Amino acid sequence: MAKVRHQVGIAGDITAVYRALHEPEGLNGWWATATEGTPGVGNVLDLHFTELVTLSFRIEALKDDELVALRCVSGPGPWQESTLRFCLRQGEDQVWLGLEHENPAASEDDFLYFSTKWTCYLLSLRDLIETGTGRPYPNDVKIHLGD
Questions:
Q1: Average pLDDT over residues 23-27
Q2: Residue 121: is its pLDDT beyond 90?
């Protein structure tokens, strides 16, 4: 089973971070080019990355200002059946955001890309909350040709 874990500190409102993790407007501010769907447990969000790919995630769990859990129900290769767990915790002077991305069917090699790319996107989310401007696809930090 392949798994990556990350954590970033974000100077901002925990509710704003929580919303950015599962509401279309928020996701468009740091990750996807465009997102369709209605936030709610059991609902599916379609994240479009220009002409590259569409990833569809079912919202598995929401706990206000604490947890957003997603499962990829449509996407290429190692994305299929991937689970994402975003955990939030209010610190003294920042919000701690943890991410676990795992897929029992994927290999460690499949996750080499994810491990690096999630760092780029989580920093994009941090920038969105702290400055009002993130770097969603296609304006994200590129980590190889064709990314």
A1: 98
A2: yes
Residue-wise pLDDT tens digits, 60-82? 999 999 999 999 999 998 999 99
Q: At 145, list the tokens.
A: 């040709």
In a domain, 137, yes or no: no
List, in sequence order, the alpha helices (H) in 1-147.
14-20, 24-30, 111-131
Domain ranges, residue 30: 2-131
Q: Is the peptide bond before 138 cis (omega within 30 degrees of 0)?
A: yes
Number of domains in the chain: 1
CATH code of the domain containing 91: 3.30.530.20
Pairing outcome for strands 83-90 and 2-10: unpaired
- Cβ count within 10 A of residue 39: 17
Say whether pLDDT at 34 is over 90.
yes
CB 35 within 8 Å of CB 130: no
